[in-house]
Amino acid sequence: MTKKEIKALISLLDDMDYEVASHVEGKIVSMGEGIIPFLEEEWEETLDSDLQKKIEDLIHSLQFEGLLRRLKNWKETGGLDLIEGMWLVNSYLYPDVDLATIHKALDQLYFDAWTNMKESMHPYDQVKTLNNSLFREKKFTANTKNFHSPSNSMMHLALETRRGNPLTLCVIYMTIAQRLGMPVYGVNLPNLFILTYKQGDVQFYINVYNKGLMLSKADIDNYIVQLNLNPVDIFYEPCSNVEIVKRALRNLAFAFEKTKDLEKATEVTKLLTAITDDDPAI
Distance between CA atoms of 26 and 189, rounded to whole angstroms? Predict the structure, then answer.
């Protein structure tokens, strides 16, 4: 279709005949995300508030369905790139933020941390050096004042503001650590996401939400006891990228529930279901 034909089609969204308007909406949806720029242009040009609202809803619907497909594809192809998965979560609220923006910020953090690293450092010294780079020099910290804000689950905002929840801060820390050659991975503890440094016989834990505090297995044992839970492997061992993104989506859905935005909470739960419902043991 030509641009003129597309604009004429969009204008019919506000047709008085419900069947006509419904048919037009279905036709637009069938055209996929490629029609979004035309919808945005029409939104800017029209003065009809009702038509603007219909266009806004259509854009959101198209973006959501596109995100749903990309998340499924990310998981089905192995979920190999954690930052891509976190960017997809980010795209729910900020579809215009591109992946390159997040990578650029991480690249700079990596370079600055790398300049402080020395060869043959002891694992504890590696962690202390990275802690110094991220928490003292770059001022990354926990967002305790607005803990339940959905923004805490947005990677690009965590990188911009240097504030985040345990998961986003851990993903940033882990990404930099792994690029530095450190065997650091995510651990799915109840109520708190942490990291583990694991290589051979060496294993300890890192609480990024507490400025990289190093913990022993005994500390994790005590934490589990305090929660009145039985110790299981997932509380001690590295988890997959897919599990990290699932947790990010759970955090985001919970944040919307806490802020009484139940419509968004429901949508995010659909995104979570899309990468969970085919798992054998859920």
Answer: 44
What is the spatial distance between Cα 76 and Cα 182, in angstroms, rounded to a whole number? 27
Q: 39: exposed, middle or buried (C-beta count within 10 Å: 0-12, 13-18, 19+)?
A: buried
Read off the DSSP letter of residue 81. -
Cβ-contact 154, 93 below 8 angstroms: yes
State the pLDDT confidence band at 15, using cuts at 50, 70 and 90: low
**Average pLDDT score over the chain:** 91
| 32 touches 61 (CB < 8 A) | no
Percent of the chain at pLDDT exceeding 90: 73
C-alpha neighbours within 13 Å on the C-beta side of residue 227: 15
264: phi then psi, degrees, rounded to nearest 5 = -70, -35
Tokens found for residue 9: 């089609």
User: What pTM was computed for the model?
Assistant: 0.89
pLDDT at 260: 94
Strand, coil or helix: 165: coil
pLDDT number for residue 277: 65
CA separation for the pair 275, 112 (Å, rounded): 35
How far apart, in Å, are the Cα atoms of 106 and each of 84, 115, 169, 263? 13, 15, 12, 32
DSSP letter for each residue of 83-130: HHHHHHHHHHH-TT--HHHHHHHHHHHHHHHHTT--TT--HHHHHHHH
Q: What is the pLDDT of residue 44?
A: 80
Decide: residue 129, CB within 10 A, 0-12 exposed, 13-18 middle, 19+ buried: middle
Q: Are 140 and 166 in contact (CB under 8 A)?
A: no
Q: Residue 67 is which amino acid?
A: L
| Residues 174 and 185: beta-carbon distance below 8 Å | yes
Cβ atoms 13, 25 nearer than 8 A: yes
Query: What does the pLDDT read at residue 203?
Result: 97
Backbone angles phi, psi at 184, to 5 degrees: -115, 130
